[in-house]
Amino acid sequence: EELTKEQIRQAIIKKHECNAKAQIIVESLLEKDIQQDYFLKCLTDINQTHFDDVIEERSILHLCGYPICRKTLSEKDIPKQKYRISMKTNKVYDITARKSFCSNICYKAAMHVKKQMLTSPLWFRDYENIPELDLLPLNSA
């Protein structure tokens, strides 16, 4: 089915609006004191790539990459090595991504959120079923 010029124009406007909103959300998640309900509300308007940006930007600011964690990253929290050898599984793991978090608990909680997030373009969200995301409790992740 052919799209009219007006439909294409509307789609481009929608795309720009969604991207602008996502950018504002990413910037807001760089604050130190993020409430859990606000965080959950934000997740429907960003995708996994934006969430990766939040994690990376927070670690640059020396904040734990998990937005609802209020801890700062200190030298003692960040593993020095690049790899970890698991004696349990006899495997070598690259732990570069883990270095953006204050603890394994926050890393697992963030990856749990990311796995649930949609990967589709933001401007398709009006036509999708948005899953209800759940968070791992930080004391048992």
UniProtKB/TrEMBL annotation:
Its GO CC terms?
cytoplasm; nucleus
The record's subcellular locations are: Nucleus
Occurrences of domain RTR1-type (ranges): 41-126
Q: What domain of life?
A: Eukaryota
For this protein, the record's InterPro entries field holds:
Rtr1/RPAP2, Rtr1/RPAP2_dom, Rtr1/RPAP2_sf
Similarity annotation? Belongs to the RPAP2 family.
Protein name, per record = RNA polymerase II subunit B1 CTD phosphatase RPAP2 homolog
Q: Which organism is it from?
A: Pararge aegeria
